[in-house]
Structures are given as structure tokens and as C-alpha cells.
Write a structure and sequence with these properties.
The complex is a heterotrimer. By secondary structure, chain A is α/β, with parallel strands linked by helices. Chain A is built from nine helices and twelve strands. The longest helix of chain A is centred in the C-terminal third of the chain and has 16 residues. Chain B is an all-alpha fold. Chain B has one domain: MetI-like (MetI-like fold). Chain B has eight helices and no strands. Chain B is flat and about 70 Å long. The longest helix of chain C is centred in the N-terminal third of the chain and has 46 residues. The chains are: A alpha/beta, B mainly alpha, C mainly alpha. Chains B and C meet through helix 2, helix 3, helix 6, helix 7 and helix 8 of B and helix 2, helix 3, helix 6, helix 7 and helix 8 of C. Chain C: Pfam families: BPD_transp_1.
Chain lengths: ~250, ~220, ~220
């Protein structure tokens, strides 16, 4: 079976600094993958390269058989990239909700302007998505009035409204107060149970263990080790993985 | 006569007014900043409501009426009831009084930007409220206000050109009297622009240095 | 005090129509100049963020020059100076142009500050949901810039309104010039210039109040 996402030889340099040194992995439809690793390991950069928010220096990314960011051998600009990005939902560490729009509008606007839904259809879709993240009661609120956990749930709804083939989560709970982490993880758990394809950069090791099918451990811009979640986290083979997990537990 | 020698003649003529321009700028800047600082202190830390209202009224009057009108009131208006000010004195007083309102706002913004903890910490270690304001809060507020004060100084330098309208003998005044006796209007006013620019550039450069050094404190 | 007030009572019938008409002229001058400076300013701000280095440099140079040159010099150069170079404007046009050119630089700086105040994540999130760069700018970035800039823009308008008084020095018959003419005719400069000041205040103050109401709480 063809994988939904195929990443081969992905590298990324900023000037002389090589942040990603050749990343290869595949994601099958419906698979949940957690990317873990110490800060500076390149896991966020890797995720941001997938929808070309960072332009990779080399390597190929294919989503559903289609090459991302390159057409007929030439790099695509942001305008050409737009429809490809719409296929991937992205959830940011700092939520990045748009403060001048209401919660509902944040979720509905892309459906209207990118996919051409009518205002009414987009609104209904938005309310459906907000129900999924248990935020219907704040549909009319402004993002600034919400707690961090609530904002992140709305951001998840915004990404879901794209009807994406793949969801990208970039440390979705890192900016949250500890007591707000749980509500976001719970929503993500529910999405996982629906069989969505999810790629999650996270520091929540227990969450990764319980929810992911596979875990990839990144360090120094490479995948050091990858495997079934439970196995990798409970009995890592590589010394660097062992050291990292030991540190995290204490 | 070649263009160049005309230019030099014009420049010489204008430089006769440069001294007055600089003096009016500096003295009214001094007046502005002192007045503005006192107003800001009273408005920010004073307890008298009536005084606050009075300062607010003063600032609104200064802020919402053109400098030209203020100068005419001071120079022509007061003279008509017997208070005769020299044109330079009226210029300095007018620009200084307006500037007091402007800098009052800048200082207040500086004080307002300080976290509450700064005053609390000072009081906690045993400073009196007066010491707290003067020794702890003021130096920080000054730093925050410095870049915008610099911008104001540039604005003030440019605004001194207005006082030519009450015949204060600064650069623009000489330019205008030169124009009536020659046909070189384009060259004269271009030279005027260049001369002000030459005076403003060092000031602007100083502001940029200050901004780079203190800009981070702004947030 | 009575001696100060009495002339107003005696001359109200003659002064009021004159001042009202002049206020209209001042308002017209200010509005035309401000509208033009918004257009120029937005253009300058956009040019300052392009790929073309020389255009960026040119705009930066323009902004720096206008910051360092008095409005009065620009005004005289346009009105008295350009005829020497073969270009002639009527006084009103020259005043509108001079005000617009000078304030465009300020407007451009405001827009630029507004643009820089929008976190990069805002645009990233817009691109991530599939917006084109144009959509990201018009739907997500620009509305926020406008919201941030509106209060300082109103303050800028009040400055422009006040500076429009300089047009009196090139014979535009607005409020300040009307005041001068009245002062010589009635020989009551104090009363008349105070009245002129009040007229400016009446136009400018509502805008000053509005700008304070619209400013974000932190800046209040």
C-alpha cells in the first residue's frame, strides 16, 4: 500500500548551520506518529518543512503521491503552495488565532475563502468543528477572552475545518499552563480515536506512548530511533534515546 | 554669476539666522522638558483632583490649537493689551508652553509603562514615596521616554521655522526676506530645506543611537 | 474681564459668518490633504517592504528627508519655488500637496510600525490553512494593522489640521489667514486670535477624544 506521506532525504540549513541532516520516514493513512527529542533536535523544523512554512534545503515530500512544493522541477511560491497547504491542518505552539475575528469566524474563514463554501455552509461547518473540540459555548467569543487551552482547542477546530488529509501538531501543549494541558490532550485523543492521520511534535511522553502508533526520536537533526510507541518508550535501544527518556522522567 | 557662488551667497545669508534657530530650539526645548516633567509628576503622582483637571485642560488646549495661533496670541494679542514681548521671547515662550504639554504626555507614558512591582519593591526596602518616584521610577521613565523626546526635539527644530511669521530673525525669516529681493526662489528654499536637514541629521542620528541602546526597555 | 468679552458680544454678527466659512475651508484643506497622505503613505509603506532594494532605499531616504525638513520649507518650495522651475500651482493645491507629502511620511511610518507589530505566527497560520499571500495580507494582516493604526492615525490628522494653518502664509484663505485679516480690520488681535484658537479647538478636540477612546488600553 502507498503511504499517505513520504519524506525522503529532508535537510534544512540556516546559512552554515545544518538543522536537519537527512530525514526519511513514511506515514500510512490513519497512523499516529509522535516526534520526540530534546529541544534543538530539529523536530519542529521538520514538521514545519512538511507544509513548506520552512523551505527545505533538499529532499522530497510527497502527500498522497503528490510532490509538495515543487512543480515540474521548479520550486513553488507561496501562492502556488496554498492548495497543497490546505490539505494539511496545522496546530501551532502559540495557537496563532486571529484576534480580529470571532471564534466561529476563525474556524469558518478558510472554508469560505479557500474552499468556496457559502457563508452559511462555512458557519455550519465551523459549529460542527467547534462541537468536536467542545467549544460550542464560546462560538461568539473573541480569542482574547479565552484561556490558552480553549484557544488551542479552537485552533484545532480551525485546522479540522480544512478537512485535511493529515494533521500536524507543533508542540500543541508547550505554551499551556499545566492545568490546561489535559483538555487539549483529551481532544487530540478523541481525534486519534476517529482514525485521523496525525503527526505530533510533543514533550508529553506518556501521551505519545498511549496515543501514537509509532514514535520517532530525533536528535541532532537525524532520526536516531523509530518504532512502535510502547516498545520505544519503555525499552529504547539507542543510548541517546535512553538518556533522553531518563532525563524527561526526572 | 555661477550657480555655485549664488548658492554660497544664499547659504551665507541664511546662516545669519541659524544661530537664532538653534537658540530658540534649545531654550524652548529646555523650557518644554522642565515644564513637561513637572506637569507629568503632578498628573501622575499628585492626589489633587482639581490639579489633574487643570493639567488635562492645559494639555488639551495646547494640543488642539495650532502653534501659529498660539504665537499670534502671545505676540500680537498680548501686545494689544500692553504686554509687549520681543519676537524671540514670544517664540520661545510659545514653543515652550506647547512643548510642555507634548513632553508631559511623553513622560507620563514613560511612568505608565513601568511595572507596578518597581514602586512596590522600592517601598518595601524602605524608600519614602518621594524617594521612590525620584530615585527609582524617574530614571527608568526617562529612559523609556528618551526616543520619543528625541523625535520631539527634531519636530521642535522644524517648528521654529513658524516663528518667522512673527518676525523672529531665524533661518526662514532670512529666506523670506531674501526672496523679496531676488528671483532665486527655487534655490533659496532648496537651500533652506538642506540647511534644516543638516541641523536635523545629527539629532536624528543621536536618536537612532539612543533607540538602539534603550529600545529594548520600551516593551 | 468685561473689556475682553464685550467685543465678542458687539461683533458676533459679523465675526461668526466669517469664522464659520473659514472653518469650512480649513476642514476642506485638511480632509483633502489627509486623504492624499493616506494614499501616499500606504504606497510608501508597501514600497518599503518589497524585494527591490533601491525602492526600499528611496522610500527610506524620502521619509528621512521629510522628517528633517520643516513643512513651511516644503510649502514655500512648492508654491514660490517651483514656478521658478516652470511649475505653477494655485495656493490651495500647493497647500494640499505640501501637507500630503509631509504627512505621508508619518502615515507610512505608522503603517510600517503596525505591520511589524503583527506576530509572524499570524501570517504563518493564514498560509497554513491554505490562504494565498494576497489573502493572508488582506484577510488577516491588514485588518489587524488598521485596528492598531487607527488611533495614531487620528492623532496624525489632528497634527495635520493644526499645520494646515501654515497655508495662511501662502495666501490660502483658511482660518488662520481669515484671523489675520480680521485682526487688522477690527484692530482687536487678542480677541480675534483667541476666537480663531477656539475654532481650531472645536474642530480638533472631538478627534483627540476619539483617538483616546480607540487607543488600546495599554497605551491609554
Amino acid at each position: 500500500m502507498n503511504p499517505l506521506l513520504r519524506v525522503t532525504g529532508l535537510t534544512k540549513s540556516y546559512g552554515p548551520v545544518e538543522v536537519l541532516k537527512g530525514i526519511d520516514f513514511k506515514v500510512a493513512a490513519g497512523e499516529k506518529i509522535a516526534l520526540i527529542g530534546p529541544s534543538g533536535s530539529g523536530k519542529s523544523t521538520c514538521l514545519r518543512c512538511l507544509n513548506f512554512l520552512e523551505k527545505p534545503s533538499a529532499g522530497e515530500i510527497h502527500l498522497d503521491g503528490e510532490r509538495i512544493g515543487v512543480r515540474l522541477g521548479r520550486p513553488m511560491n507561496d501562492r502556488q503552495l496554498a492548495p497543497q497547504r490546505a490539505e494539511m491542518g496545522m496546530v501551532f505552539q502559540l495557537f496563532n488565532l486571529w484576534p480580529h475575528l470571532s471564534v466561529t469566524e476563525n474556524v469558518a474563514i478558510a472554508a469560505r475563502k479557500v474552499r468556496g463554501l457559502s457563508a452559511r455552509e462555512a458557519r455550519e461547518l465551523a459549529l460542527d468543528m467547534l462541537a468536536k473540540v467542545h467549544m460550542t459555548h464560546r462560538a461568539a467569543a473573541s480569542p482574547q477572552e479565552l484561556s490558552g487551552g480553549q484557544q488551542q482547542r479552537v485552533a484545532i477546530a480551525r485546522a479540522l475545518a480544512q478537512k485535511p488529509k493529515l494533521m500536524l501538531f507543533d508542540e500543541p501543549t508547550s505554551a499551556l499552563d499545566p492545568e490546561l494541558v489535559h483538555e487539549v490532550l483529551k481532544v487530540m485523543e478523541e481525534l486519534a480515536a476517529e482514525g485521523r492521520t496525525m503527526l505530533i511534535v510533543t514533550h508529553e511522553i506518556a501521551f505519545a506512548r498511549d496515543i501514537a502508533d509509532r514514535v520517532l526520536f530525533l536528535d541532532g537533526g537525524r532520526i536516531v530511533e523509530g518504532g512502535p510507541a510502547r516498545e520505544l518508550i519503555l525499552s529504547p535501544r539507542e543510548p541517546r534515546t535512553q538518556a533522553f527518556l531518563r532525563q524527561i522522567r526526572h | 554669476m555661477t550657480e555655485l557662488s549664488t548658492f554660497i551667497l544664499i547659504l551665507e545669508g541664511l546662516l545669519a539666522g541659524a544661530g537664532v534657530t538653534v537658540v530658540v530650539t534649545l531654550v524652548s526645548l529646555l523650557l518644554s522638558v522642565s515644564l513637561g516633567f513637572v506637569l507629568a509628576l503632578v498628573r501622575q503622582f499628585g492626589k489633587r483632583r482639581a490639579l489633574h483637571a487643570l493639567i488635562d485642560l492645559y494639555c488639551e488646549i495646547m494640543r488642539n490649537i495650532p502653534a501659529l495661533t498660539h504665537l499670534f496670541i502671545l505676540y500680537f494679542g498680548l501686545a494689544s493689551i500692553g504686554f509687549r514681548l520681543s519676537s524671540i521671547a514670544a517664540a520661545i515662550l510659545g514653543l515652550g508652553l506647547i512643548g510642555g504639554a507634548v513632553t508631559c504626555d511623553l513622560f507620563r507614558a514613560g511612568f505608565a509603562a513601568l511595572p507596578k512591582g518597581q514602586a512596590e519593591a522600592a517601598l518595601a526596602v524602605g524608600f519614602t514615596p518621594f524617594q521612590t518616584i525620584l530615585d527609582i521610577l524617574t530614571p527608568q521613565a526617562m529612559r523609556i521616554a528618551l526616543p520619543s523626546l528625541g523625535n520631539y526635539a527634531v519636530q521642535l527644530l522644524k517648528d521654529t521655522s513658524i516663528v518667522s511669521a512673527i518676525a523672529a530673525p531665524e533661518i526662514m525669516f532670512y529666506a523670506r526676506s531674501m526672496v523679496t529681493s531676488s528671483f532665486q526662489t527655487t534655490l533659496i528654499y532648496t537651500t533652506v530645506a538642506l540647511l534644516y536637514l543638516a541641523l536635523a541629521l545629527p539629532l536624528m542620528q543621536a536618536i537612532r543611537i539612543l533607540e538602539n541602546r534603550y529600545g529594548r526597555l520600551k516593551a | 474681564m468685561n473689556r475682553f468679552i464685550q467685543p465678542y458680544v458687539d461683533n458676533a454678527g459679523e465675526w461668526l459668518p466669517l469664522l464659520l466659512e473659514a472653518m469650512g475651508k480649513t476642514a476642506l484643506l485638511s480632509i483633502c490633504a489627509f486623504a492624499l497622505s493616506l494614499v501616499f503613505g500606504l504606497l510608501l509603506a508597501v514600497c518599503r517592504n518589497t524585494r527591490w532594494r533601491w525602492l526600499e532605499r528611496g522610500v527610506a531616504l524620502y521619509v528621512a528627508t521629510v522628517r528633517g525638513v520643516p513643512l513651511l520649507a516644503i510649502l514655500f518650495l512648492l508654491y514660490f519655488g517651483l514656478p521658478g522651475a516652470g511649475v505653477t500651482f494655485d495656493a490651495f493645491t500647493a497647500a494640499v500637496l505640501a501637507l500630503a507629502l509631509a504627512f505621508a511620511a508619518q502615515v507610512a511610518e505608522l503603517f510600517r510600525a503596525g505591520l511589524m507589530a503583527i506576530p509572524a505566527g499570524q501570517r504563518e497560520a493564514a498560509l497554513a490553512v491554505g490562504f494565498t499571500p494576497y489573502q493572508s495580507f488582506t484577510l488577516i494582516v491588514l485588518p489587524q494593522v488598521v485596528r492598531i493604526s487607527i488611533a495614531p492615525l487620528i492623532v496624525t490628522f489632528v497634527s495635520l489640521l493644526k499645520d494646515s494653518s501654515l497655508a495662511s502664509l501662502i495666501t490660502v484663505d483658511e482660518l488662520a489667514l481669515t484671523g489675520r485679516a480680521m485682526a487688522t480690520e477690527y484692530f482687536l488681535p487678542l480677541q480675534i486670535y483667541v476666537a480663531v484658537g477656539l475654532c481650531y479647538f472645536l474642530i480638533a478636540w472631538p478627534f483627540s477624544l476619539l483617538s483616546k477612546r480607540l487607543a488600546p488600553p495599554a497605551a491609554r
